[in-house]
Amino acid sequence: MLKSNIPSGPIEQKWTKHKFDSKLINPANKRKFKIIVVGSGLAGGAAAASLAELGYQVDCFCYQDSPRRAHSIAAQGGINAAKNYRNDGDSVQRLFYDTVKGGDFRSREANVYRLAEVSNAIIDQATAQGVPFAREYGGLLDNRSFGGAQVSRTFYARGQTGQQLLICVYQALEKEIAKGGVTMHSRTEMLDLVTVDGHAKGIVVRNMVTGEISSHAADAVILATGGYGNAFYLSTNAMGCNVMAAFRAHKRGACFANPCYTQIHPTCIPVSGDYQSKLTLMSESLRNDGRIWVPKSAEDCKNAAASIADADRDYYLERKYPSFGNLAPRDIASRAAKEACDDGRGVGPSGLGVYLDFRDATKRLGESTIRARYGNLFQMYEKITGENPYETPMRIYPAVHYTMGGLWVDYNLMSNVPGLHVLGEANFSDHGANRLGASALMQGLADGYFVIPATIAPYLASQTPGSITTEHQEFKKVEEEVRERVGKMININGKRTVDSFHRELGHLLWDKCGMARDAKGLKEALAAIPGIREEFWENVRIPGSGENVNAELEKAGRVADFLEFAELLCHDAHDRKESCGGHFRSEYQFTEKSPEVKAGKTQPGEAKRDDENFSHVAAWEFKGVGKKPKLHKESLKYTAVKQTIRSYA
Amino acid sequence: MSALSCCIHSAPCRFWNSSIGKKIIVALTGIVLVGFLAGHLIGNLLIFQGEHAFNDYAHFLQTMLHGYGVWIARIFLLTSLVLHVTATIQLTIANRAARNIEYQRPATVTASASSRMMIWSGSTILAFIVFHIFHYTVRVSPELAEIGAENPHAMVIAGFSNILVSLFYLIAMTLLCSHLSHGVGSIFQTLGLRSHKTALPIDLFSRAFALFIWLGFISIPIAIMVFGFGK
Amino acid sequence: MANLNLTLKVWRQLNAQDHGRIETYDAKDIPTEASFLEMLDIVNERIVEDGGEPIHFDHDCREGICGMCSLTIDGVPHGQDRGVTVCQLHMRKFKSGDTIWIEPFRSKVFPLLRDLMVDRSALDRIVAAGGYIDIRTGAAQDANALPIEKDKAEAAFEAAACIGCAACVAACKNSSAMLFVSAKAAHLNYLPQGAPEKQKRTLAMVRQMDEEGFGNCTNQYECEAVCPKEISADNIAKLNRDYAIASFKEAVS
User: Fold this and answer.
1) How much is the pTM?
2) How far apart are CA A542 and CA A552, in angstroms?
3) Alpha carbon distance A93, A113 (integer Å)
């Protein structure tokens, strides 16, 4: 069922060879093909613009009021590329290796190599489009370091790299809209996928202003709809981020791969109360100069940070990972923070926080340098917490940030449903079990600008353009199902708000399937989720009608899918009986007794992978609501790198 | 029809019809009017030099370029004024139309009171200009016409001895001061010559200039009315 | 700090056809740590529980970067606090007993969709008219082949920080979009990559702005004062200059 279509040959020649071997569509014929792109972030926007440049007719959809607002915009830190402008030993090979290792040897090698290979072209492209990357006085591009790498390969635009990259993607998209190549449908949400004879041929959408439900047909469908972090209710995602498009595709036959790989970002502002609607991320770049610590003794936790002597502070990342220190990868830094707090040494009113301290960096570099580097982040922190980080250390705690899992795709980024392509965070392929900082922007743009324009042609070449229209009975059928579902939801008229269900689900997932998981907790979650779902369908209250803007209805549709998706997430977490990257099963960790610990290769408490049994992609096939999905495995073979214990010590 | 559309698509027409183009016209005509005001004031202040100086100056204006000079200046000034007034009225109408529903609870963060009443200060000044021309230039009053033909200095003294005239003059000059305090600075911004580094000096200059014009012009009626100058 | 008890005066309007009006809501027991939008979430949850329809407002990222949130609070877009979007405004800035007026971003160019949500697609059309650098994917030279003065790159960045929220339009007494248009144009006009299309871009963006029906700038700087990204009105001066030059060049060449 799962054919990864990885090209043969040495890894460094696969992409070139594949492009040469793939069928092309002649320029005159391209305009006969119509492609639907759902999502207008870095992956979707870049794909829509680039495909329109090639001559395809593109219909692009987003739920926001403008494509410029997709959540890629919130990425702060930067974008990686193997330019080696720093002469510090970087190369495509090294970026590839760091990314595979960062992903805890659970990503598809060939995809990652391609990602590293096209990374340089992304920087060239973005710069030519006018992205105002940071520069040095000589006028050339500046770099900074990011977690999980010992070279300085991250390009950045202050703390707004995502926004600057997205604006230029958006501008390219608007250019194509003006030229007529792209038809933009904003404030339009995809509610279902339409397949005809097993091929993805269109979508059913709801106009979020008028409430109109309509169908759109195309020769191929691209989903670039982001991740599912909002299943946890609180996350760094935007309020509107959801799994609906991907999950609808899953219900129509697309396999969902590795949903248990969820990334918890270490540097977020801690939760302050029940009313909280989202968590705010502080860029990982802060870890370049900030030192993370908690008091050595729990008694000190309530004392002012400044009053705690250096000898009484535990700089735990520096202690545990001397060579990477505060720049240890995200999953490791997050888990270490959790351990410290579980140990009773957390700081702040909730006890769920650790210090990120700039005292020493300020002494070393001066406040003006710190202000120049992080001024906007410090300001953001002060606005939210009311505390001045120049005077007292920041308090941070991990939060759900990015999801490595997603719809299963082959080397062409096509799912197991022919014609359905999936890009960016919505697919599973490049980050394995953990994503390194500054790699998401790289992947989104790689997929959108350089991969899909080349890899969609082989599929389209096998199709007769325009052969399926919305007149096809499948469209009528799906549209009717969607109407029925929306109508049913509105008519429940129960007692509880949509948010109350979402919060309940989120708490459950965070407790049982969050930073650390175990079989018992996951079983409890799997037992509890159907109950919440059933109550939702009996007792949710959605005021108003479907004919106007109705925010509660929009949220309800998304939460309904999270309530089904959550089970898939827990099944995957339960069945993956190992720890790797963002998936930490407390039963599977190194202990004092492990031979690897004794040999000094790792430390107690680190994630213990099981390469023998779990070196595979877990791709799940939908079998019905409430039924256990069927597992398909794509075995991961490493030829260019050797699977080793992931050590940052 | 084609002649009309040709006109509409001509470069000056497009410039006039664009938001920025029209404001640049306002700024450029503003420079002319501001320059005139400065010159006019300096001329007027000669009144304090005595009757001879003032009457000689008036004579010079009348006979400059064999008497054509004053007409060249008048036509140039009138054109500038008409453009300035037409453009600002059109801009104001467009501005009002752009917000069809007002805020129920409006607020202002930084805009000065002067900047918000430009159209009203401007209209008053326009009305004053009309009056002023009929008063001292056309001299509709037979009494002033008689004095003015021989002795402009005496005409000014006589004119300002009327309390209503002086009062209107004072109000108009005060609104002119307000108009200039925003208008002079705006010239720099509209012509693209202002930046955050020059903003403060430009604002100070704008206000100082407005104050200078105000004090200069009102000094004459006040001297006449309050201190009995020239009587 | 003790929780807050507030009175909200909120603009309610079902859709574009409906007549809008101000309605009054009690917002009791609001934590000071909550953001302004979280305060509205709390109020909305109570409205829904009481059988009413929630107050609709646009929002998404809730970290001040997507530009979706668009509330005018006590007459000031994004509220009195400087340099933040309304999602970054926190309730500790208010005190118990306050009455807060909440209205949409008002402009004829932004048709109202529901309650506090408006349609800002005019801004997208201005960008589509010329706010881009027209290069094809894949055609770029090496990024370091074109050194750019740090100052210029910084100036371009300062302009590019615009999040397209339209607070400038909402705050402007004339509902002018000059700060937005000038920032979008300046971002590209500052950079050497943007130079070949500078004249075309400037003219096209200004013309589209005029066509949309925005008001005209009268240099009152309300826009600059409320901009959550503190975009400078220097950009407007630059646009005026660039437009004059472009118009002249277009007329004579």
Assistant:
1) 0.96
2) 6
3) 8
Record: contact A174-C127, CB cut-off 8 A: yes
One-letter amino acid at A590 equals F
What are the chain C neighbours of A449 within 8 Å (beta carbons)? Answer: 137-138
Q: Please give, rounded to a whole number of angstroms, the shortest distance from the CA of A430 to a CA of chain C.
A: 21
User: Beta strand pairing status for A188-196 and A182-185?
Assistant: unpaired
Q: C20 and C91, same structural domain?
A: yes
* Tokens standing for residue A74: 């919130």
Q: Please give the order of strands across the beta sheet that includes A220-223.
A: A182-185, A57-61, A34-38, A220-223, A420-422
Whether C124 and A174 lie within 8 Å, measured CB to CB: yes
Active site (annotated) includes residue A69: no
Residues C136 and C239 in one domain: yes
Contact C124 A277 (CB under 8 A): no
Domain, as residue range, for B33: 22-95+115-225
Q: Cβ–Cβ of A69/C68 closer than 8 Å?
A: yes
pLDDT of residue B8: 67
Total number of domains constituting chain C:
2
Query: What residues 55-114 of chain B have any CB closer than 8 A to a CB of chain C?
Result: 91, 94-95, 97-112
User: Which residue out of C48, C82, C118, C162 would a mutagenesis test of the A interface target, given it has the greatest number of A Cβ atoms within 10 Å?
Assistant: C48
Residues within 8 A of B (CB atoms), C 24-63 only: none
- ipTM field: 0.97
Which tokens hold the place of B108?
């202002």
Which ranges constitute the DSSP H helices of C95-143? 121-130
Q: Which of C114, C147, C181 is the last residue of a domain?
A: C114
- Compute the residue count for chain C: 253
Measured over the CA atoms of residue A326, residue A328, residue A334 and residue A335, the dihedral's sign is negative
Chains within contact range of chain C (3+ C-beta pairs < 8 Å) = A, B
Our answer on whether A and B touch (3+ beta-carbon pairs < 8 Å) is no
Taking one residue from B and the other from C, the number of pairs with CB-CB distance under 8 angstroms is 141
Asked if A571 and A620 count as a contact pair (C-beta separation under 8 A), the reply is yes
Percentage of chain A exceeding pLDDT 70: 100
Give the type of residue at C22. Answer: I
Residues C124, C162, single domain; the answer is yes
Please state, rounded to an integer, the average pLDDT across all residues of chain A: 95
CB contact under 8 A, B103 and C109: no
Residue A239 Cα, gap to closest chain C Cα (Å): 5
Q: Please report the DSSP string for A108-155 in residue order.
A: -HHHHHHHHHHHHHHHHHHHHHT----B-TTSSBP-B--TT-SS--EE
Tokens of C130: 């010329």
> What's the domain range around C101?
4-114
Please name the fold of domain A473-635.
Methane Monooxygenase Hydroxylase; Chain G, domain 1 (1.20.58)
Please choose, from the candidates A559, A576, A573, A571, the residue with its C-alpha nearest in 3D space to the C-alpha of residue A627. A571
What are the structure tokens assigned to A224, written together? 């670039």
User: Which architecture, in CATH terms, is A265-398?
Assistant: Alpha-Beta Complex (3.90)
Domain boundaries, chain A: 265-398, 473-635
pLDDT band at B1 (very low <50, low <70, confident <90, very high): very low
Rounded average pLDDT over C164-191: 98
CA geometry: angle at A487 spanning A482 and A493, to 5°?
A: 140
C115–B contact, CB cutoff 8 A: no
Bridge partners, A356 (sequence order): A292, A394
Of A106, A153, A330, A435, which is the active-site residue? Answer: A330
Domain end call among C86, C114, C142:
C114
List phi, psi (to 5°) of A635: -70, 140
Q: Which of residues 125-164 of C touch B (CB under 8 A)?
A: none
- A564 pLDDT above the threshold of 80: yes
CB contact under 8 A, B109 and C225: yes
- pLDDT recorded at residue A230: 98
Identify from C240, C243, C247, C249 which residue to disrupt to test chain B contact, counting B C-beta atoms within 10 A and taking the largest count. C240
Q: How many CB atoms lie within 10 A of CB A402?
A: 26
Rounded to a whole number, what is the distance in Å from the CA of C72 to chain B's nearest CA?
A: 9
